[in-house]
What we know:
It contains 9 helices and no strands. It has 214 residues and is an all-alpha fold.
Amino acid sequence: MNLPLLLNIATFVVILIALGRVNASWSLAKRVLLGMMLGILFGLALHLIYGDDSATLKLSISWFGIVGGGYIQLLQMIVMPLVLVSVLNSVARLNSTASLGKISVLTIGTLLLTTLISALVGVFVTHLFGLTAQGLVQGAKETARLTAIQDNYVGKVADLSVPQLVQSFIPKNPFAELTGAKPTSIIGVVIFAAFQGVAALNLLKDDAVKASAC
């Protein structure tokens, strides 16, 4: 490591420590805004000092990425367990399994409606401003991301018929679904959690003592 790189990393660490010591009375929105502003200012300063093609700047960014990439990976780590626990807890708190059908219809209907609205807005804006993909520059990261999506998701789903796609939603190994092994793993986790919640409701109805112990 050269001295400029060490100085960049040290400055970055100091900024992180300063953000961590921000008054806890500040709202989350204020702290996020402060972090964003400090990040923009720090990035502009590095850009002005080193320029676009500096090897030191590129190496510094790779070190900074440990924090950003690590944060994203930590979020990804808790997504599946969070979905499982949230759905299981929600279903188990219902008064009866009959309520589950109403909530499911309402939830799915709301999801489809919001998806339809967002799609219509996208189509409307595209036609209104005449937006096209011409002139877009595809960098190495975008190309790698597209390749990963095609290899990991599109290839596994494109050849499935509608019945096969629906069947793929049904989990056969809940532990494998929790690892995100399939493109439809999140749906499998939701279905598994819903069944667990219904089982808890039925157990509560049949034997309240055992249900409370569980």
